[in-house]
Specification:
about 160 residues, alpha/beta, Rossmann fold, seven-stranded mixed sheet, 5 helices, about 25% helix
Length: about 160
């Protein structure tokens, strides 16, 4: 996986805008692996993406304790996983991982805990801390075959989020 140039995000609103723009080209079968330290904005990014494909005012709770939340959206089902609390990758079979991969968009926080269950054809989105207290830096790493199936990624590289 070769990363694309980093995207500077001034604040949480810019992070949400990037997620909304990305939502427009996701489709069932896509996996987006959200990486970053605690507090980097993974859940905020996922919430904005889910709301962009459903109702902007929709309640989108963190799946930290439930491990997965599923939503019906205009792009089909979205399954939002938070793997922070799992102890071993084989636990994924108990929480509907295989079914989610087969029938919807999968957003996964703490994807490194999925081990070999994480498909190679995915988009890794790493959120890191920027210079200011709210600033973030997003790095996109498309897996094998992702770019050919998703022509929208280059558009994310131009301008600032929201332009």
């Amino acid at each position: 996986m070769v990363p694309l140039p980093p995207i500077e995000l001034a604040d949480e609103a810019a992070t949400a805008d990037l997620a909304r723009r990305m939502a427009g080209w996701l489709k069932p079968g896509d996996v987006v692996a959200l990486r970053g330290d605690l507090g980097a904005g993974k859940t905020s990014f996922a919430r904005a993406l889910i709301r962009a494909l459903s109702d902007e005012g929709r309640e989108v709770p963190s799946p930290t304790f439930t491990l997965v939340q599923s939503y019906e959206t205009s792009a089909g089902p979205i399954h939002h996983f938070d793997l922070y609390r799992i102890q071993a990758p084989d636990e994924l079979t108990e929480i509907g991982w295989d079914e989610a991969l087969g029938g919807g968009i999968v957003l996964v926080e703490w994807p490194e805990r999925a081990g070999n269950f994480l498909p190679e054809t995915r988009l890794d989105v790493t959120l890191g801390f920027g210079l200011g207290p709210e600033a973030r830096i997003a790095t996109l790493r498309p897996g094998p075959g992702w770019m050919a199936a998703h022509g929208g990624i280059p558009a994310l590289q131009t301008g600032r989020p929201g332009e």
